[in-house]
């Protein structure tokens, strides 16, 4: 690869001098000796050459290599970027800190050559050439003007975090670069990302910076942590051990704010007096965040941080990392439309990123709250946010852009995207999959589409609730009722402690959001909540426990001691996201009248006929429904007969068949003929069950209950399954009746092994040939005058000649009034008896 331009070499040299003589004392120290050289400097010529030749590059550099602080300034001075350089950072704190460090290297303040832009805060000027932005800002810039006028380069920093906004921003940038701006310089930078797939997607060369600035020694537990030891206790013990064995600042990685406070409490009194504990998490006021990353004037500091400290953020004086091995991620269940936070084990990439924080300014140590054996079982990378996040915002952006097909590094799950579009349709943002004017208005607001819809539809009075729902809870230990928080916002006092910094942020955000909203009349807060959460209107189930069904179809519950537990209807704004039955965290009570007012277009009248297993009958009901909620339920008195019959079919499937004797004989006759002629319909149980709609439905008129079905004769319906020709064949080959010598018709039973007739013996007198059907002999069962079986035969003439004499001897004494001739073949058939004397 060729040598870099002379100007590039000069720039690199200048950067080193500036770092040494101006600002490097704050950022790059090793036991008091200034050290401006960073690993990224070695590959800077290769990186610049790749950008010059290809217009794009993927930079893979370990933590502490200097990519955030070196690359934008080097690109600015090469002349290959025509226009402003936009660099994306995953978090607000990282974006502000990166801009400040870049500006300091130029001897300037932010807002001059280097500026930043994020939600609710912008510091740029006409002289700004490098703009550090949070990731969602780029999407707004592209959607506003896809040609990105005045922008010459886009840098995706810390792309390994794979946020949803970063994935979307990269996909949009690739489309812009291909269709409108082939001159746009594109660079993707990451510390731990598997660079191959990204380079293939971007069609860019990979530039790799080997090694971090200083070595980091890992220290694992001797054995896996015992399950009975509480996590916060084990974390505090490891922090105390690390402080006791080392020198310099300590950075502790914990999954969330709650764990930070609990570990901090357990460290009270266990650390030396010169140790200052500094929490660091996203909801912390910026002044306290700055205190955590700034160097201490004396002693040492212990920073208890969330994953916010994994990014390009440089935390001063850190020599030791304590990785507690947990990470908190959002998991979205598209079936319930709810997100929940889950705490999981860190991945190998996250552990590497965290450990690298100890090698930023000197050789360091990384204590890990797991054993070396467990280390090998860590998964390689965390899941991309697009795989597990709420995709409602993404669905809006895709609709504004004009459809699917963007070149995503990881395609969004189709099911989750489909559920997001269902919600957007309910909010009026989509119509038949296409963006509406209302949807475009929502996309321009810096809010989740739910809250944006509430702000646009409810106007300025809804801004406080929108801010309240988009920030952390302002009350400590309060029940679920959001009206308690709204009263605090309006200046009232309550019985619960107030989180003052959170309250200040909510008030500030409410003022900012009100600027985007129209002037509309004030409405109750539950109306606004129902606008944003039409799928989370909750109806209390019957019973003593406060369990609810949501309009979206999922179940939810709340603590029985909660003041809202007795309310019939709620609007639920937040749950713990459990996909089976979610716990309600925040809600507002709402009346049915208000629901009908705000969700009128979503309420539908549905007439239903359904089989009730509990009642054992068809229930015809007229219902008003909001999603899965039944707001009213009355009898459907004029339900069509065919609807009732169709519902009765479900009852038949549950109750099963009970055929009359005539119907069973008919099925047996059909089965006998079908054995020789497969064209005859199959009337077996399985076949009839599979074709209920065809043969039974037309004959269920008037049948609505289990009792009706029990007495219903299906013979007519069964006969209707055969054509006239087939019935003629059945009657000929397997007639239903046998004509006795007296001319009387007696039914033939085909359910036995051989077709059988049963009749009194006197009725067959004079018969000299055995009766047959379809060429087969009938089984004849002779009955006594008392209707008791006395003989069964398959050969009547032989019976007369043999066994009859014994039967006559026995029967004539018991039934003397009935004829018992010596030669029955010569007697006339009869059913008469001799008259009494």
Give a verbal description of the structure.
Pfam families: CON_HrpB, DEAD, Helicase_C, HrpB_C, WHD_HA2. By secondary structure, the chain is an alpha/beta fold. The protein folds into 5 domains: 203 residues, P-loop containing nucleotide triphosphate hydrolases (Rossmann fold), CATH 3.40.50; 173 residues, 3-Layer(aba) Sandwich (Rossmann fold); 190 residues, Up-down Bundle (Four Helix Bundle (Hemerythrin (Met), subunit A)), CATH 1.20.120.1080; 81 residues, no CATH class; 86 residues, no CATH class. 37% of the residues lie in helices and 21% in strands. The chain is built from 31 helices and 35 strands. The chain has an 8-stranded mixed beta sheet, with helices on both faces. It has a 6-stranded parallel beta sheet with strand order 11-18-15-12-14-13, sandwiched between helices. The N terminus is likely disordered.
Work out the helicity level.
25-40%
Query: Nearest-angstrom radius of gyration?
Result: 42 Å
Supply the number of structural domains. 5
Task: Report how far the terminal alpha carbons are from each other.
Answer: 136 Å
Portion of residues in beta strands equals 15-25%
């Amino acid at each position: 690869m060729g040598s870099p331009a002379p100007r590039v070499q000069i720039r690199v040299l200048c950067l080193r001098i500036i770092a040494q003589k101006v600002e490097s004392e704050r950022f790059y120290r090793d036991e008091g000796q200034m050290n401006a050289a960073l690993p990224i400097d070695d590959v800077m010529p290769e990186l610049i050459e790749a950008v010059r030749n290809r217009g794009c590059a993927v930079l893979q550099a370990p933590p502490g290599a200097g990519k955030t602080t070196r690359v934008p300034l080097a690109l600015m001075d090469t002349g290959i970027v025509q226009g402003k350089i936009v660099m994306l950072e995953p978090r607000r704190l990282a974006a502000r800190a990166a801009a400040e460090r870049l500006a300091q290297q130029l001897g300037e303040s932010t807002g001059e050559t280097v500026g930043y832009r994020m939600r609710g805060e912008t510091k740029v000027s006409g002289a700004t050439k490098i703009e550090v932005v949070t990731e969602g800002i780029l999407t707004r810039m592209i959607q506003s003007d896809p040609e990105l006028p005045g922008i010459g380069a886009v840098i995706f920093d810390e792309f390994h975090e794979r946020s949803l906004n970063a994935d979307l921003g990269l996909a949009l940038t690739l489309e812009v670069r291909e269709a409108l701006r082939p001159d746009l310089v594109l660079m993707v930078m990451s510390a731990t990302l598997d660079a191959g797939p990204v380079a293939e997607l971007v069609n860019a060369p990979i530039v790799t910076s080997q090694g971090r600035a200083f070595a980091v020694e890992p220290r694992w537990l001797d054995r896996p942590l015992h399950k009975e030891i509480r996590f916060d206790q084990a974390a505090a013990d490891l922090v105390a051990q690390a402080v006791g064995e080392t020198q310099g600042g300590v950075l502790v990685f914990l999954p969330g704010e709650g764990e930070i406070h609990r570990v901090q409490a357990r460290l009270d009194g266990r650390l030396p007096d010169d140790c200052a504990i500094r929490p660091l998490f996203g909801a912390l006021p910026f002044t306290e965040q700055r205190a955590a990353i700034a160097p201490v004037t004396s002693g040492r500091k212990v920073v208890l941080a969330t994953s916010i400290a994994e990014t390009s953020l440089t935390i001063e004086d850190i020599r030791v990392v304590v990785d507690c091995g947990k990470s908190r991620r959002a998991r979205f269940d598209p079936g319930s439309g709810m997100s929940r936070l889950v705490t999981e084990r860190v991945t190998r990439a996250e552990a590497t990123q965290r450990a690298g924080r100890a090698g930023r300014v000197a050789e360091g140590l990384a204590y890990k709250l797991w054993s070396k054996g467990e280390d090998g079982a860590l998964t390689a990378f965390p899941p991309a946010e697009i795989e597990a996040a709420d995709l409602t915002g993404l669905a809006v952006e895709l609709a504004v852009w004009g459809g699917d097909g963007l070149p995503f590094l990881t395609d969004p799950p189709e099911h989750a995207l489909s559920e997001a579009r269902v919600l957007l349709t309910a909010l009026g943002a989509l119509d038949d999959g296409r963006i509406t004017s209302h949807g475009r208005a929502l996309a321009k607001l810096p809010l989740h589409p739910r809250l944006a819809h509430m702000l646009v539809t409810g106007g300025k009075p809804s801004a406080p609730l929108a801010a309240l729902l988009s920030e952390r809870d302002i009350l400590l230990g309060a029940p679920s009722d959001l009206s308690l928080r709204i009263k605090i916002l309006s200046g009232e006092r309550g019985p619960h402690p107030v989180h003052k910094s959170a309250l200040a942020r909510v008030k500030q955000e409410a003022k900012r959001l009100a600027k985007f909203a129209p002037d509309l009349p004030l409405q109750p807060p539950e109306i606004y909540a129902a606008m944003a959460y039409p799928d989370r209107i909750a109806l209390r189930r019957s019973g003593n426990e406060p369990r609810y069904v949501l309009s979206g179809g999922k179940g939810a519950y709340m603590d029985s001691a909660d003041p809202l537990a007795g309310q019939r209807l709620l609007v639920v704004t937040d749950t713990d996201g459990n996909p089976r039955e979610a716990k309600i965290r925040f809600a507002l009570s709402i009346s049915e009248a208000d629901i009908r007012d705000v969700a009128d277009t979503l309420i539908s009248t549905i007439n239903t006929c359904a089989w009730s297993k509990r009642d054992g009958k068809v229930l015809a009901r007229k219902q008003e429904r909001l999603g899965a909620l039944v707001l009213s339920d009355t009898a459907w008195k004029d339900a069509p007969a065919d609807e009732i019959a169709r519902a009765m079919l479900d009852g038949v499937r549950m109750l099963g068949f009970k055929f009359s004797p005539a119907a069973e004989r008919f099925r047996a006759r059909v089965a006998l003929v079908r054995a020789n002629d497969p064209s005859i319909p199959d009337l077996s149980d399985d076949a009839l069950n599979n074709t209920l709609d065809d043969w039974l439905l037309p004959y269920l008129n008037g049948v609505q209950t289990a009792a009706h079905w029990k007495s219903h004769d299906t013979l007519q319906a069964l006969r209707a399954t055969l054509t006239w020709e087939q019935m003629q064949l059945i009657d000929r080959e397997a007639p239903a009746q046998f004509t006795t010598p007296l001319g009387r018709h007696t039914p033939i039973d085909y359910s036995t092994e051989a077709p059988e007739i049963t009749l009194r013996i006197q009725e067959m007198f004079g018969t000299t040939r055995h009766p047959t059907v379809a060429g087969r002999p009938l089984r004849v069962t002779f009955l006594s005058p008392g209707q008791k079986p006395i003989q069964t035969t398959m050969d009547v003439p032989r019976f007369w000649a043999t066994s009859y004499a014994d039967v006559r001897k026995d029967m004539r004494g018991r039934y003397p009034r009935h004829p018992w001739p010596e030669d029955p073949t010569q007697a006339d058939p009869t059913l008469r008896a001799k008259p009494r004397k």
